[in-house]
């Protein structure tokens, strides 16, 4: 058994799954808000036959972006419910490293899954479609590296936090 599995009597372990769901949702919100809306680098289906070059294509992408945001909203809601339920179950001594680590792990996991599926497997969009097509792959790979580094940093923080003393 690991140190995370055996809290002292009466102490509840930090619900890492809550932080992971919250981190995945926040990762999705970052992608949707910053990359889709603020920077306008891409939308959900800009490489899948719906480039943002007409009002109709923009309407389709806006709908798909909204559905994407609805999904990230659900991830955040699940994380909040798990965190709330765990917090109400009794005495807990949670460490900040557990929360920050699980948020980073969730955010990084989101980047890895979304990047692999949407950018590489399905090719429905790429991280930065405002640059030449020849450089899209570098942005997509950078997105995966960023996700992997966040996941590793998060996992490291979770493991280093151990259990409450």
UniProtKB/TrEMBL annotation:
Organism of derivation: Aureimonas glaciei
Keyword Cell wall biogenesis/degradation found: no
Keywords: Membrane, Transmembrane, Transmembrane helix
Entries under InterPro entries matching the protein: DUF2243_membrane
Transmembrane segments: 20-39, 67-87, 99-117, 137-158
The keyword Membrane appears for this protein: yes
Protein name: Membrane protein
């Amino acid at each position: 058994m690991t140190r995370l599995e055996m809290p002292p009597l009466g102490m509840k372990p930090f619900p890492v799954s809550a932080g992971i769901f919250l981190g995945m949702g926040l990762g999705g919100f970052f992608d949707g808000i910053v990359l889709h809306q603020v920077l306008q680098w891409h939308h959900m289906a800009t490489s899948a036959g719906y480039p943002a070059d007409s009002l109709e294509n923009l309407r389709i992408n806006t709908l798909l972006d909204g559905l994407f945001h609805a999904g990230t909203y659900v991830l955040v809601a699940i994380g909040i419910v798990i965190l709330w339920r765990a917090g109400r179950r009794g005495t807990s001594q949670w460490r900040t490293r557990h929360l920050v680590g699980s948020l980073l792990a969730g955010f990084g996991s989101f980047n890895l899954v979304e990047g692999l599926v949407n950018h590489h497997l399905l090719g429905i969009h790429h991280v930065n479609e405002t640059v030449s097509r020849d450089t899209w792959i570098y942005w997509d790979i950078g997105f995966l590296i960023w996700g992997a580094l966040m996941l590793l940093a998060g996992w490291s923080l979770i493991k280093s936090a151990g259990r409450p003393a």
